[in-house]
């Protein structure tokens, strides 16, 4: 059996197939396996999410229930147990996110590789798979290129675990899409997901480095409210990023690609409706009547936001609080509830955590991960048209699809 790609999906697929008695060869084009895993979770590796399967279905696109069979075979508790058995202890943090106790993605990778190697998997590095060979609509082997020499390797089945196109420096350059297309598969167009977004003007740049917590971001398309997310975000020199922005980005990217007008408004005080917020502003202004307006703004906003608000509202910060009129106060309140940015673009695959798009779900049997186009060809991980929100969901997709693909392919190997 050939596994193409030595990322998380490839390691799990190879290890499980070998565990079941298959002779497995992993072909990895980089000098080492799992390079992308090393940068996940900012180097800590968000291994999985401890949420129930129903939450997974809500967080996976375009069709979470496609993974029902895969999750039945191998789920979050299974990967945690596998890693624990390799000496990698885990901890559950906010949002049910699971991390290694050591805070080291390298420990997770070494644990997975140790398990794979224990199952006697062979792996060759710096070798690129150029093609899938087939006869009578059935896989017969692959062609690989290593040191500018092409050779053929015969095999009964192939599992493609090449990842998507995000973070191409780690080896994810869309090779799997080309391999799938070459044997007749449809590829849903790949696009960046969980990606920072670019906004118009210099407003975001003026706030670069400012992190906001417990705010609500709302996406507006052609003037209509569509999606929203509550939590933390960050301003960058190009626009907006951070957890809630990344969560919304999948929808934003698709709307920008449709040439729609997209805006994001930030509600800085989501716990207060307009009436309650206005009442608070009135109270604070009355209690600090003889102080400068700029000082009372410190009760309401992070310091970096204050000059930006003053400029937008055209309020003189040196004025005294009792001099602030009702119109100025209402404008301040409305801006706190609707701090708006026009989205003009999104960052590229180099900054995208995951790839949306991939091999069409219609052409993969969800019960086995086998191709419906050509026999004995399987898919696992990001190469499939599945992506999810942040929180460990995407890695779990990789493990679960790989485990199911490996078990299905191992059955064929025994025939």
How would you characterize the overall build of this protein?
With 415 residues, the protein is α+β, with helices and mostly antiparallel strands. It is elongated, with a radius of gyration of 25 Å. The chain folds into 2 domains: 2-191 and 355-413, FAD/NAD(P)-binding domain (3-Layer(bba) Sandwich); 196-347, no CATH class. α1 packs parallel to α5 (105-118), α1 runs parallel beside α13 and α9 (274-287) crosses α12 (326-337). The strands form 7 sheets. It has a 6-stranded antiparallel β-barrel with strand order 13-16-15-14-17-18. A 5-stranded parallel β-sheet has the order 7-2-1-11-22, with helices on one face. It has 13 helices and 23 strands. A hairpin with a 2-residue loop joins β14 (211-221) and β15.
Which fold name corresponds to the CATH topology of the largest domain? FAD/NAD(P)-binding domain
Structure annotation, total helices: 13
> Which outline best applies?
elongated
The domain count comes to 2
Q: Spatial order of the strands in the main sheet?
A: 13-16-15-14-17-18
Helix content: 25-40%
Level-1 CATH class name of the largest domain: Alpha Beta
Q: Between the first and last Cα atoms, what is the distance in angstroms? A: 13 Å
Task: State which percent range the strand residues make up.
Answer: 25-35%
Give the quaternary arrangement of the chains. Answer: single chain
Q: Poorly predicted ranges (pLDDT <50, ≥5 residues)? A: none
Q: What's the architecture of the largest domain, going by CATH? A: 3-Layer(bba) Sandwich
Radius of gyration: 25 Å
